[in-house]
Design a protein that fits this description.
By secondary structure, this protein is an alpha+beta fold. It has one domain (22-150): Cytidine Deaminase, domain 2 (3-Layer(aba) Sandwich), CATH 3.40.140. 27% of the residues lie in helices and 23% in strands. The protein contains 4 helices and 7 strands, in the order βαββαββαββα. It has helices spanning 22-36, 75-86, 114-127, 147-150; strands spanning 12-14, 45-53, 58-62, 92-101, 104-105, 132-136, 141-144. Strands 1, 2, 3, 4, 5, 6 and 7 form a 7-stranded mixed β-sheet that branches.
């Protein structure tokens, strides 16, 4: 007999950065600043990400496009790779994402692509700690407490039978 199920998630929505805690506000502003450094001549879609480490350090990343598509990198993966590579053991506890089109912040919050979601999930799995995700648009900001909300039924090393430290 088949079984049916459902997947749902919750998020907290804010109307402006002024409603955020000072730490979350700083992270969102860092993501917006990072988007200014994006190299997006093909799509015109500039994305910035800022990750917060346990130590309180903020690491930024921006999307970098390439004419040899898909050789570019998303802002979220850029920031996550920088944090993991250059700050080992100082785990990511939050990430903020902001995007611009036509030199203007997007009205709605932009969510990470599937590949970026999987990278965030891997870091959550590796560290054993949830990563808060702050999605910042011009008209609203959404906060999700863990990547599992955006990537249910995620693939992880358990499927591979991997036993890593």
């Amino acid at each position: 007999m088949p079984t049916t199920g459902s997947i749902s998630f919750s998020f907290t929505e804010f109307d402006s950065t002024g409603e955020l805690s000072s730490g979350d506000r700083e992270l969102v502003l860092s993501a917006r600043e990072a988007a200014v450094n994006a190299y997006a001549p093909y799509s015109g879609f500039s994305v910035g990400a800022a990750v917060l480490l346990e130590s309180g350090k903020i690491i930024n990343g921006a999307n970098v496009e390439n004419a040899a598509f898909p050789s570019g990198i998303c802002a979220e993966r850029n920031a996550m790779a920088n944090a993991v590579s250059n700050h080992p053991g100082d785990h990511v506890i939050a990430i903020a994402v902001a995007a611009f089109t036509n030199d203007s912040l997007t009205d709605e919050p932009v969510t990470p692509c599937g590949t970026c979601r999987q990278v965030i999930a891997e870091e959550e799995f590796r560290s054993g700690k949830q990563i808060r995700i702050i999605l910042a648009g011009r008209t609203k900001i959404r906060v999700v407490e863990s990547i599992s909300a955006l990537l249910p039924m995620q693939f992880n090393r358990d499927y591979l039978g991997a036993t890593l430290p």
